[in-house]
Amino acid sequence: MSPRQGQRTVCIPLETMDIPMSPEPPTFGLDVTMSPFQSSSKFRMDIPFSPAPEVRYGVDIPMSPDQGSKVNMDVPMSPTAQGAAAVELVSNPWDEELISSLLSKLSTPLTSQPNFITWQCKVPSIAPKMTIKMGEGSLRVDCVLGQGAFATVYQVTDLNTSEKMILKVQKPANPWEFYINSQLNARLQPSVRHLFNNIHSAHLFQNGSVLLGELYNCGTLLHAVNLYKNLSDKVIPQPLVMYFTVCILHMVEQLHNIHIVHADIKPDNFLLGERFLENKSFDQDNLDHGLALIDLGQSIDITLFPKGTAFNAKCMTSGFQCTEMQSGRPWNYQTEYFGIAGTVYCMIFGTYMQVTQEGGVWKTKYLEEIPTVICGQSSSTLC
């Protein structure tokens, strides 16, 4: 969503926020949200190189070090795999060779899409305060919003429209994120498309990729959790937690209905935009609640695998590894439910959820002191 005329867009650099990031540094799941597709002619980079007919994809889905392999095993069924006695087990759905193979077999190549542009050069140098020529317009690089091991996210301003946007630079390239974005465009109902990040355009270079999209300027659920720590109750009010939980469940359900597993559900990846500030209806069916699920670069397209396929790799954000990952059992949609539980837990208690296995039963670790009010009275235990 573009900023409304007369409204002030607020950029909160991540480095200025006193927030606990994920229990382990993410393999760059930065808060990047995009706006609906636009014509690529507006965003073609005006640099002295010609687009290449094809560039071999250097895919970076840095999750588990395990290599992708397939064997037939009896494993627990997923919600969409009913009636089969045995399913396919894929070791690592984020394996680079597997991702490259899946992309190479697409009936419609990414390079055929007008807003996917390849270049016969390396990613141009990008830094704050510089101006990047973009076709008929120019983008001023305002500041760095976040930086990880494999990507840097900048806030940029379109000098023609004054619109503030996100520029995500990834090294090596990650065309998979653009692919997932295109599938959301094709499979989701238009009425719910705004609940997920969307990419303006993608530029694939020899050593990396650049994604251009829209800026959400009201922070993440994690920011909200930390802001409430400075207030008397210390945590988000329970009615608001319940409302956000309903929104989150609905959003994840939309993804599962189109057979996409986000695979990185956590408070850091839910962003609030201006829709939230303008929202006057907290009805459970209201789709203008302002919450958006972002960072689909590690998502899994279940339709590209045999029905009932399960996986056994572990994501690198250990605090959000589902119990199946932790115990070495196959998983698919289970990782989503664990991520939802961990996100809700963080909103309720203001800290990350930790689980332990006792007598074959997985439980959340006991909190000696919970600085909150539960069921109307101060308590250190759940009621």
Give an overview in words:
This protein has one domain (14-61, 99-378): Transferase(Phosphotransferase) domain 1 (Transferase(Phosphotransferase), domain 1), CATH 1.10.510.10. The longest helix has 20 residues, at 238-257. The protein is globular and about 60 Å long. The protein has helices at residues 96-104, 175-187, 221-228, 238-257, 274-278, 323-327, 334-349, and strands at residues 70-73, 87-90, 116-118, 131-134, 137-147, 151-158, 164-170, 199-204, 209-214, 260-261, 270-272, 291-293, 300-301, 310-311, 355-358, 361-364, 373-374, 377-378. It contains 7 helices and 18 strands. The protein has a 7-stranded mixed beta sheet with strand order 3-8-9-7-6-5-4, covered by helices on one side. Strands 1-2-14 form a 3-stranded mixed beta sheet, with no helix packed on it. A two-stranded antiparallel sheet has the order 10-13. It is an alpha+beta fold and 383 residues long. Residues 139-383 form the Protein kinase domain. Pfam families: Pkinase (PF00069). GO terms for molecular function: ATP binding; protein serine/threonine kinase activity. One of its GO terms (biological process) is meiotic sister chromatid cohesion, centromeric. It is found in: Chromosome, Centromere, Kinetochore.
